[in-house]
Amino acid sequence: MKKIFWIVIIGSLFGAIFIFTRIVFSEQTKVNQNTNVTASVEQQEDGAETRSSSLSPDTLQEDIFEFNGEKTFTLRHSGEVTKTTAEDITTFIIPEGSISIVPLSYEGIIRHSLSVQQEEKIVIDGRDAVKIAGASAKDGTFFTYILLTEGNKLYEFQGSDTFLTKLVPETFHFLR
Q1: For residue 115, what are the contacts with CB-CB under 8 A and spacing of at least 6?
Q2: Distance between CA atoms of 136 and 133, rounded to whole angstroms?
Q3: How far is CA 20 from the centre of its chain?
Q4: What pLDDT, in 10s, does the model give residues 81-92?
Q5: Is residue 126 very low, low, confident or very high in pLDDT (cuts 50, 70, 90)?
Q6: Strand pairing of 114-124 and 173-174?
Q7: What CATH code is assigned to 2-174?
Q8: What is the C-alpha separation between 134 and 14, in angstroms, rounded?
Q9: Where are the domains of the chain?
Q10: CA angle 124, 164, 116 (to 5 degrees)
Q11: Which of 29, 48, 140, 168 lies 20 to 30 Å (CA to CA) from residue 23?
């Protein structure tokens, strides 16, 4: 009974973050006035969403991200960072996407939230990661995630194609 309670609590927390990031990306077009970056979301006929952004290399800034009071990683991105923390989930939201840091045990919840259609092994900062694409089990919306394990934490990357195929693999670096 206690195990079921915690599964429900953890599922609810993940669902809240999932909904929050969906709201952030729900606008049809977002423009960051300070960096001349445009990100857009296009709805395809099959219900899938395609996120894209146009980035100019001279507009990217490198930031150091802190987690639990420690400088944890760096990432190049185009604009403002918003950090949210709820229970044991920390999410950094940038114009191109989001990075959530969750307990490693959440991987099953994340994977079960999708009907996985494609899974690809990739390398980020010299570490093995996995890129997962599939439809939301809730409403069929198509999503792509990158999952990266570091210690007892799972880093979940979600966002534009540019974010997942270029910025994360090429500019994300752990500081430890």
Answers
A1: 134, 135, 136, 137
A2: 10
A3: 12
A4: 999 999 999 999
A5: very high
A6: unpaired
A7: 3.40.1000
A8: 17
A9: 2-174
A10: 95
A11: 168
Alpha-carbon distance 31 to 40, whole Å?
A: 9
CA-to-CA separations, 97 to 88, 125, 130, 168, in angstroms, rounded = 20, 18, 17, 10
The token pair at 153 is 């934490």
How far is 29 from 165, CA to CA, in rounded Å?
Answer: 20
Q: pLDDT tens across 35-56, in order? A: 333 344 444 454 444 444 455 4
The letter for the amino acid at 34 is N
- Phi/psi for 94 (5° steps) reads -125, 170
- For 43, the enclosing helix (H) or strand (E) is strand 37-43
Tokens describing residue 74: 């760096």
Check the CA dihedral 94-128-118-137 and report its sign: negative
Instruction: Specify the residue for token string 């959440």.
Output: 106
According to DSSP, the β-strands at 37-43 and 29-32 are: antiparallel
Picking from 79, 121, 66, 87, the residue whose alpha carbon sits closest to that of residue 17 is 87
The rounded distance, in Å, linking the Cα atoms of 30 and 41 is 9
Tell me the C-alpha distance between 111 and 176, whole Å.
27
Three-state SS annotation for 70-117? EEEEEEEECCCCEEEEECCEEEEEECCEEEEEEEHHHHHHHHHCEEEE
